[in-house]
Amino acid sequence: MGSDPQYARYPDLSLAQHIFHLTNPSTSNDTQKASIKSLRDAIHEHKMAPLYRHLAHPVEGILNPAGEGSAQKPPPTGSRKPRGAVNMLASKQASSHIDLPWDEKLYEELKAANEKELETFQKEEDEAAEKAGETEIQAAKGKRAEFWARVCEKEKALSCYEAVFEKTGVLGTRIDLVLAIIRIGMFFGDKLFVKKNIERAKALVESGGDWDRRNRLKAYQGLYFLTIRSYNLAAPLLLDSLSTFTSYELCTYSSLVIYAVLAGSVSLKRVDFKAKVVDAPEIKAILGDGDEKLSALSGAISAGPGASDAEMQDASAATPTPAPTAINLTLLGQSATGAQEIEAPIDFSPLAQLVSSLYTGDYRSFFLALAAVEENFLSQDRYLYEHRGWYVREMRLRGYQQLLQSYRVVGLGSMANDFGVSVDFLDRDLAKFIAAQRIPCTIDRVNGIIETNRPDDKNKQYTDVVKQGDALITKLQKYGQAVRLRGSERG
Known about the structure:
Number of strands: 5
Oligomer: single chain
Strand content: under 5%
Low-confidence stretches: 66-84, 302-325, 327-340
Shape: globular
Order of helices and strands: HHHHHHHHHHHHHHHHEEHHHEHHEEH
Number of helices: 22
Structural class: mainly alpha
Largest sheet: 3 strands, antiparallel
Strand order of the largest sheet: 3-5-4
Mean pLDDT: 83
């Protein structure tokens, strides 16, 4: 079997993104139209009867507006939509203008095509059982599992994958099966299920998985940590995956760059942020200017703590770019299954501006870039959408902390001007972080200043040592008394 990935083609996670677009109020009409077309084409091409029912059924369909039924069969009173609907949609209420009507005739045609295909699989399994060995039988059962994953029938796909897993002895194939199971959980937004199986895949990889599968699992883990808002855990995994990424069944390389930069920007310390994001060749090849892209792709620059700050200073001087550049990353990598879709060009300029302005301390541009990143990236991705408010808040906090740590006293009006906001907004925003003890400072609104209260780490460490020492001495005294008591009893 080698290191070639198996069972990597289905389910198609891009379809889950299209479903998300249909219920996302931030998505443009053109994008929604393109998504509905992609869904229709996929349903017809791959005969996806279960997915069609899951989306468009007049009673059970998650895209069906509440209370709307077919002319032949109105929805029963008190009917509920599947629990998975909440995890697949951007909002609980589906848009009323989604053009995916229920067609009973089409559904029956798709269902009949599915049954015919299943009969073929059953025939292959029977023939393999009579004339071939266990390997051929497992291959036939694997086709059935991939079929159910292709048509997005969650429970049957999981059942078939588990059946194949139990009978498979090759470690690489077992890892591929668990990764396929993880993608099914990601498709339907089942985070607890994904967590359980990532731990399962991790145990298999640690037992002797090859280099390629270890790297693929990094991307899976990083993406899972994004969905549960653990950006500090996601950042190192996603950044490490940039140079060795092969998991095109999980997401595109463009998406990986976006996830890695966003996670690193909000969670890494300044030194690590420079080394792993600002100066990383893989990221410079995407976010840098023309010369930096050329240098990064040719290997003329390398990441590391010793990299010069001159490049960032030059970048900050050229911040107001006259025209953003849109990049198509399709040619940077190809899917192992050959099923990768052509990527639309992506404008990375807001992301590049966010990284550059945060590092160079251009806070006015930083806030503008953060707003653009929220609009263009955080609000458009199914993994980032849920946490967009938290992310914007944490990035504002990071900007405030970075400026305040350099000063003992800062003028409130001066700081508001640096960030390009009003004094009232800054006062209210800082007050929330101060109350939550996220920023050690006080606001003197009468004098219009902010005084920072820098924590004395050495005194704190000394106090902690004294407290721990007192506790240890108390325990030793009690122990000594107990020992003496036992000795007197023996005497």
